[in-house]
User: What shape does this take?
Amino acid sequence: MMLSLKDVREKRGYTQPELAEKVGVSQSLISQMEQGKKNGSVSTNMKLATFLGVSVEAILHGPKFTQSNNEKQEAKR
Assistant: This one.
């Protein structure tokens, strides 16, 4: 199951300000992304995904992406 950006960040042991500094964005953007209020740019999403070791899809969609895929698999059965 894919985790949300917040879940991945916490699992890796970073605070919002630490993650923001590591990838070169504001803490406010990280917060807004975690709350689903804003998506990062393509560049930001790539940096976050690379730094956290997850797919860009996980950054953009988190658990919703996995749920959607699971529903598609169930429909095929």
Q: What stands out?
A: DSSP finds five helices and no strands in the chain. The domain at 5-76 is CATH 1.10.260.40 (434 Repressor (Amino-terminal Domain)). The chain has one domain: 5-76.
